[in-house]
Amino acid sequence: MKKFLFHLVIASLVFACNQPEKGSPFLIKVDPTLASDLKDGRLLLIFSDKRDQEPRFSISDNVGTAQVFGMDLENYQAGDVIKFDTDSFGYPLKSIQEVPEGEYMMQAFIIKYETFNRSDGHTVKLAMDQGEGRKWGRTPGNLYSKPISVRLKKGATIELTIDQIIPPISVAEDTEYIKHIKMKSEMLSEFWGRDMFLGAHVLLPEGFEENPNQHYPLMIFHGHFPDDFGGFRTSPPDPDLPEDEYSERFGIYGYQKIQQQEAYDFYQKWISPDFKRFIIIEIQHANPFYDDSYAVNSENLGPYGDALTYELIPFIEKEFRGIGEGWSRFLYGGSTGGWEALAAQVLYPDEYNGCFAACPDPIDFRAFTTINLYEDQNAYYQEGEFRKTLRPGHRDYLGHVSSTVQDMNHRELAIGGPLSRSGEQFDIWQAVYSPVGDDGYPKPIWDKKTGVIDPSVASYWKENYDLRYIMERDWKELGPKLEGKVNIYCGDMDNYYLNNAVYLTENFLEQTQNPYYKGEVAYGDRAEHCWNGDPDLPNYITRLRYNTMYLDKIEERLLETAPAGFNQQNWTLTKN
């Protein structure tokens, strides 16, 4: 067992004769020096049997997850002792009464909420990104107690003191090749009723400063919140990296060294004389619901699609000499980034010249992971006349299931409650795709406890965000604008069953006429999430090569569509 890195304190146990009102066995105090700006939030109570990491980092969809319960915190006053509501919903055990007696590591955590007075007339309380990418366990300003060792025993009271605060993050600094920008979005600021910002990490081409009259195509690498530009390194791998460093995800040793070598190799290509010259950006668009916006307009998140396409991208192109026309912009990414790449291409067909969508989040809601939103009545169960079976949510390449759709959603429900505030996967899908409910929060696609689907919400999702349906519905208009621009890649054993929606989308694309879609759909044999199109190399390598692996296809596209003045040799446009 690894060395226990955090401070241990034995909790004081007060027996039944001194139990608080209403029988709550858990008392939470907040250090007065940290309570001045605490008003609303979500209070988590976390139990874990792990000694090598804090309980807040031990909650997962896997069978080895920590136990978490959550309750809303409203109008907190400094000095209040919080009596944890023992009726609070939990994951994986639903009730505190179900937790067996025994020894646990225990921690209390507060996710702070801020109040937003939106332009749609709704007032909502949500967790604001603080520059970290809307990750509640690491959000600057959130509060927590030191993990303590407790013995949970019937009739005992446990007291926890929240006396820790997550510090601010460090901001990435500019380098010769990588620049960082942050701009106020007028569109988003108007929607949210406060200043809202978009950011990006910009990788500039070799010779950018020496060639002030050259303008460049733009490659937009969509994905989850990046704290800096990834996969680019101007020095060889660190020689002191441990050889026994092990990647659980890929089952190999020395993966950190592999990553650094790939990053250095990319730099060597980037500066070589025969490499194509273009700009790459990674976008920061974290918001009160998630680490990114899904790059589309949304009733709940606001006009992120318009803000990115008509505010941020033109700003970058003006600042760093992008060509600034739709034929010169390309999109790629994996998972969430794969969905965003395809969505931006479909919804803004004239503004981009091609997308490469790898392992995209569900692009056909008839296969929303393992759920058909239009025909199934329950998201959690397959139901027959005499029995029902839980729907799988995560598998490995052999098909072994490690969690269910219900597991994933109940974890989110415990962390964030019923209002899409967990900052996790199913909640952000709901926040992006759903209409606003009467309470100002996203209208649920299904009951978070039971899984019962709301057909009216599913219909709204279909008309606005089912990408296959939108392409099929509008192909007469969209087809000529998307011809040659749609490319999709997915492993046929994607861990989250995302390949099922790709199959359905491919069926439509292959039947298109006037015009035929003229793109590519490909599958990786037994490949897991997130396969991105190379059948010859393992996923742990190709996932590090997004910025180079589609260049041949992009070159073909530019040969077909770029104007005569575009230099195909080094992908630049000289303007006098």
From TrEMBL:
Pfam families on file: Esterase
Top-level division of the source organism's lineage: Bacteria
PANTHER family: ENTEROCHELIN ESTERASE-RELATED, IRON(III) ENTEROBACTIN ESTERASE
Name recorded for this polypeptide: Secreted protein
Species annotation: Algoriphagus machipongonensis
